[in-house]
Amino acid sequence: MKSKPLSVYIPVRNTKIAMQNIRTFNTCDTVNKVVIISNDSNIKAGEPEIIKTGLYNSSEVIAKLKQNLLTNYFLVVLQNTLISISNDSLNKMIAAAENSGAGLVYSDFYDVESKELKHHPLIDYQSGSVREDFDFGPLVIFSREVLLGSREKIADYKYAGLYDLRLSASRNFPVQRIPEPLYSSEKIDHRKSGEEQFDYLYPANREAQIEFEQAFTDHLKNINAYLAASRTTVDFNREDFKYEVSVIIPVKNRSNTIEDAVKSALNQQTDFNFNVIVIDNHSTDGTTELLSDISQKDKRVIHVIPGEKNLNIGGCWNEGIHHSACGRFAVQLDSDDIYSGRDTIQKIVDKFHEEKCAMVIGSYKLTDFHLNEIPPGIIDHKEWTAENGHNNALRINGLGAPRAFYTPVVRKINFPNVSYGEDYAVVLAISREFKTGRIFEPLYICRRWKGNTDAGLSIEKQNQNNFYKDFIRTEEILARQKLNLLRLQTGIN
Predict the structure, then answer these.
(1) In contact, 417 and 312? CB cutoff 8 Å
(2) What is the pLDDT of residues 16-31, one digit of tens each?
């Protein structure tokens, strides 16, 4: 009799959905047994086997897996969705694991929408794919070897056990994506892109985030990419600048918001001189004419139209920071947004001088187009700590706004010429070697509306953005490993 190489683990978040999934997997000859994870007292012991806990992703569950797993592979259902999968698809995933030696296998799938199947492509896993919300789809298959090779003493995580196991798998084995839809999933959470990205900031998720940070920090130490907090400070008097601050505003076709943004910058009250450098990326909707009129009336506004026509937001930032009139500090303001008060850039400059840091990042408030506050409200990124913020920055998707940079430092780094993740790349690079100043009160108003670059994105565009950000993380991890190796060789900490 042919052996059955697969065990299936199903967290019970919704009993009806879980029971349907149990029936689905029980029809597959590849499946040895189905185990449910639940603390529901109404579910009786017997068939299927039960792990009694409501902490589906806990170290307790991983420990019980390690103790009781008899098959070579185990499948975990990650999402509260109805799964439809064939025995052939399960065999294909197991074959992929065997052929590649992968510790973790996942595949594209179909979303079920109004009884129609829609292909849901995923992205390949990189060494920088370290965020806990990396999209593997609704299910993954692990090799038993991942459990056997995991840490001798499993950490006591309530929420980060599965994340910790996944990081361990990525350290020791290939992670294999099959670019073919092998099953279908009827999704429950239908929020648009842009709505989920702040989930990790809600207070109810804070305990989980602390665990994710701990597991990720351990991962960095295991791959020699962990950095101790930088004590490197900056001497702001080494170079002379005509202006203390330049507010940098890249813009293209924002005729309905650009005046508000520029006015917000010009209304700043400071004890130093500043200007506003607006890089107008060949707008065609009247933005250019508006900026021309504003700059003629107020000479603090420098209206720049780049010679090149292939610039994205990052390229426009490079135009701004390398402009001859750029000030000592370059402060961000997006063309959709405004500062929350008239003292924003004064507070930023004060923080630079207080901490002698190369970068300052503030906090912001989310509003609709008409400046009415919307959930989750204030985004303060209080998860940042002076001791570990620069490490945890590799895991999370954003770091706050406004972002401000000491110009000589950011000129050496430059922004990648993209319109998503350009700021993230620069922030990671600076935090690798310099102190970061943080301001946890809201200095900035971020307006969410249908014109935002990250509003209502297609799956393909989300994938493109996520893959690029993971690429940034991959490059930064390599840079930090190289820096640690250099420090080890030279004896410099």
Answers:
(1) yes
(2) 999 999 999 999 999 9
Query: How far is residue 200's CA from residue 216's CA, in Å, rounded to a whole number?
Result: 15
201 and 266 housed in the same domain: no
Of 483, 322, 320, give the one whose Cα is nearest residue 408.
Answer: 322
Number of domains in the chain: 2
pLDDT > 90 fraction of the chain, expressed in percent and rounded: 85
We report the CATH number of the domain holding residue 110 as: 3.90.550.10
Read off the tokens for 442.
Answer: 């809201």
- Give the residue-averaged pLDDT of 247-257: 98
Neighbours of 378 (CB within 10 A): 14
396 and 299 within one domain: yes
Q: Are 300 and 405 in contact (CB under 8 A)?
A: no
- Residue whose tokens read 């602390």: 210
pLDDT for the residue numbered 190: 53
pLDDT bin (cut points 50, 70, 90) of residue 41 is confident
3-state helix, strand, coil in the chain (%, to 5): 35, 20, 40
Q: Specify the pLDDT at position 452.
A: 64
- Residue 1 has a pLDDT of 41
Whether 450 and 371 have beta carbons less than 8 Å apart is answered as: no
Number of H helices, E strands in the chain: 14, 20
Phi and psi, residue 447, nearest 5°: -90, 125
Cα separation of 443 and 219, whole Å? 34
User: What is the C-alpha separation between 2 and 398, in angstroms, rounded?
Assistant: 49
Q: What is the pLDDT of residues 138-167, one digit of tens each?
A: 999 999 999 987 655 567 899 999 999 999
Closest CA to 94 of 3, 187, 23, 20: 3
**First-to-last C-alpha distance (Å) of the chain:** 60
376 upstream amide cis, omega within 30 of 0: yes
Nearest to 207 by CA among 161, 153, 157, 166: 157
What range does the domain containing 254 cover? 245-456
Is residue 302 located within the same domain as residue 362? yes
Residue 108, phi then psi, degrees to nearest 5: -60, 165
